Amino acid sequence: MQSSSILKNIARQNDGTYTTSHGDFELRSAFQPIFGTNSAGRLELRAFEGLVRANRNGEPVSPGVFFESLSRAEMQDVDSLCRTLHILNLGLMQRRQAKLFVNFHPGVFVTPHDIRHEVDRISLATYEAGLTPDRIVCEIARANAANAENEALLVERLRQLGFRIAIDEYGEDESDAQRVDSLRPDYVKFEASWVLEFLDNPTGSALLKMMVQQFSERGIETIFEALEEIEQVEICQELNVPLMQGYVLARPQIAPTNFNQEYPEQYLPLSAGNGGSHSSPAGRSLAGAAMARRQTAFGKRQS
Asked: How confident is the model at residue 178 (pLDDT cuts 50, 70, 90)?
């Protein structure tokens, strides 16, 4: 596979970012930061989740409406295009440490050849973006029993090439633990509503703390998402949750983002900044950063 093949349906805009299209829809990358705490208890940007933003005739269309309009065959192509888009746009940020979470849906792959082709494509996109595979975290959506074989093959192939693996929507279902044992992910993203319910009571919080510790002992980092209250962030800190994501910390931004100004990375090239000038909150405590953002009216998280 040549670089020209992955760029065939990708356009470079005047602002420098990459976009693509499908039918009447224009598709752009959006990124939402994922945070951890450093040894001083300070806010530290560790990763981004790549999200797609669609518009038609200049009007935004929700991701749910857009993806529901696709056939299975279209979904495979668009799913692949979005990953390529996010990887290329992350490369433009010129950050040296932040990882990128990109979504995979095993159910869209029909044959092992489809899987090999897609893994080759993401490998080439990673190379073209100037990134290394260990900075790309492939977030594997829950597969039904009929797609379990494809899921296992996809994870095996990605891991062989050095990509990191995450599974999402981990919760109380017994099959979730079996899935972790089978796929051996590097990251586990907990099911949001389940976590938020448990954070509301001491017993639930104690259970979550135990689970976070058990995963840590296995070399797996946990991620709590959809955090919308300062108190939730503070509890996560008390539970030693490694990674956190949510509107109370940072909303998604469509590329080009202002995140290089808001959360500058050490040794970041001066030319890497894009967007307007902002005072940097880097070095503030998580609670302090969250308090500043609380003054904004936050909505519910959308993919």
From this structure: very high
Q: Read off the tokens for 229.
A: 């209250």
- Which residues are bridge partners to 204 per DSSP? none
Contacts of 98 (CB under 8 A, 6+ apart): 45, 46, 47, 48, 90, 135, 265
Nearest to 257 by CA among 97, 40, 79, 51: 51
The CATH number of whichever domain residue 208 belongs to comes to 3.20.20.450
Name the token pair of 97.
């440490």
Report pLDDT for 43.
74
- Integer Cα distance of 73 and 86 in angstroms: 21
Instruction: Give me the pLDDT at residue 38, please.
Output: 86
Helix (H, G, I), strand (E, B) or coil at 247: coil
pLDDT for residue 284: 44
Is 299 inside a domain boundary? Answer: no
Number of folded domains in the chain? 1
pLDDT of residue 260: 94
Decide if 252 contacts 51 (C-beta within 8 A).
Answer: yes
Residue 302 domain flag: no
In single-letter form, the type of residue at position 79 comes to D
pLDDT at 236 over 90: yes
* pLDDT of residue 288 exceeding 70: no
Q: What single string gives the DSSP state of each residue in 3-51?
A: HHHHSTTEEE-TTS-EEEEETTEEEEEEEEEEEEE-TTSBEEEEEEEEE
Name the residue among 119, 179, 113 with its Cα closest to residue 143.
179
